[in-house]
Amino acid sequence: MMSPAFCRWRALAAAWMSTLVLLACDDPAPVPPPGVPPDDVTGTNDDPRCPPKGAQRPRWLERIVCPRAFAQVAINPDTSLFARTSSVKFVIDLQDDNATYFIDGLRYDLHYNFCAEHLNKPGFDPVGTHSEFNYYQYQRADRRFLLGTITNYEDADVVALEFATGDSIQPAQVRFAFEHLQQRLYFGDELVYRPISRDHELAAEAELEGVIPIVRTEDLYANITYQPLNAGIGYGYLRLLEGAPDGVRPNEIVVLREAPNDLRPVGGVITEAFQTPLSHVNILSKNRGTPNMALRGVFEHPDVRALEGQLVRLEVTPQSWSLRAASLEEAEPYWEQLRPASTFVPPLDLSVGGLPDLSTLDRTAINVIGAKAANLAEMTHITPPVPLPDQAFAIPFSHYWAHMERNGLQARRDALLADPRFAADPAWRRAELQALRDAIEHAPMDPDLTALLYARARARWGETTKIRFRSSTNSEDLEGFNGAGLYRSESGQISGGRPLEDAVRYVWASLWTEEATAERDFYRIDHTAVAMAVLVHPAQPDEAANGVALTVNLFNPRRPGFFVNAQEGEASVTNPGPGEVPDQFILYTWYEEPEVEYLSYSNLTEDNAPVLSWEETLDLYSALQRIHQHFRAIYDPAREDRTFGMDVEFKLLKPGRTLQIKQARPIPAAR
Predict the structure, then answer these.
(1) What pLDDT band is residue 29 in, cutting at 50, 70 and 90?
(2) Which residues contact residue 387 at a Cβ distance below 8 angstroms, ignoring those fewer than 6 apart?
(3) Nearest to 534 by CA among 565, 504, 514
(4) pTM for the predicted model, two decimal places
(5) Can you spell out the DSSP letters for 70-128?
(6) Which domains does the chain have, with CATH numbers?
(7) Closest CA to 521 of 409, 399, 400, 429
């Protein structure tokens, strides 16, 4: 280890030589080169003060004079909301004549770590403990340090000054930091300010608009060209599809214009339109362990077109993607490892009849009423309670099973599964599955069950209330098998709408869609043991807003938070229409009060205002906290909180925009 005296001598020598030598010393601060004003930065790697190629990374730099200097202290975040980014953290010491440190992000992943190691100096406010540091340096106006990040967004050609979401930095401090850093960056004239939290945005609009250049998150999002959704490596024959992805196979990498509602197992997905991270296709990709990305202009991309029809290797990373020709020797082990080694027989209990209330059951009833209904039943036991559908009940597996046996459909199903054409002839299989669904829908339902269903619905909700019948199987929300979007739901009404028994039989029949059957096939789920239960509650046709939330920050687990997508009215969040963009934001949970960082704003609201008000956001936050803690205590109480997460669907209902939790399930990847 070099002594402080030697470090000071070497720095002075370097300054005398007008050369920036990158040091690995424990000196509290390097001595700046004399005679070089702060704004004397040239921006070229030919600058004599620019670090030489291959030089050791410094602990910090006082100014960034060239691209090579930026690269020496920058990191490429593997948890960024945006691809192709590089970031440099900075510290401005207001008590030490505004001494500035652009710190090595590999060595110091937190500003606190750098300050604690180097800036605990006599005569200045102490750095303190981590919690003290977070309070004094992020929450108080009379702080010692200004702490932030300079981020280069390559796709958008933007370099932005940013402060942490929970930082209560004042607009005057933002302006000072901006103008101060401009003089110490070779790209100072190109620097812009990106307000991250809603508070930052409101403050910027009120006091900084027209004073310093500002870029909004949604503007960055609109200009990026590459979106990594699920990182990984996949192999398959590259297939470009203009229309629906019919007949795709596990040994294909598919290129699509839009993210479809359903997609059979494939080796990887590339869409031209950007997706929401909570889309069904991305949830399925995460469950399958296959790469998924979006790339603007992918159908015209020369590297993609050149490989059309060939066996390829697709790699998706948080920062970049690659596509190249591959061999069968590479691909075959990959295809095989995607599937479980053995057949899985899902749990099934046919002993429970009637129409049990969810409040009398819990999550252990998955083998009686399916995963969706059992998880909703579990939520009836959360205290304080979360808002759930009114007086929900379930139609257990036993009624579906009896319907199939009484009408000879179980034997028909077994004959279909045993026929060699089921695996060998896709057209025959498609036609026979359609015929089986038709038979399930038209076979007479048990009159006793029908009478019981009508009596229960009439007593609870009256003659004219529209009732929602939702699929709930024993072959979804399983460890390693999500099954998102595979099955169907339907509405019925006692008077003036679809008969209740028709809605029930439609849901039963959806167990045998081509997509669901193919997915279970691929994951070696025993078809003969699958069954359909039905979750029943009032429909909510008049939605003010809807959304999906993950109670884990998948972008950066070190910063605990909830990732939320919300959209106006009934427009889908999981499968948005062409051109539709939802609110996408992170609710950070590591502060005393939740802080919000928006990735995008809905383009369906007036003036692109947030879908949820702050009060509605707080209501949602509170419900998500209770759901997260309740299920974490059940599934994995010993595991770190930041690695467990729930997938929660919610609505805001008219009139009054009241919150309702539609469903919740543990995220397989987060267990």
Answers:
(1) very low
(2) 623, 658, 659, 660, 661
(3) 504
(4) 0.75
(5) HHHH-B--TT-SSSSEEEEEEEEETTTTTEEEEE-TTT-SSHHHHHHHH---TTS----
(6) 35-209 (no CATH), 226-337 (3.50.30.10), 358-538 (3.30.1490.20), 543-670 (3.30.470.20)
(7) 429
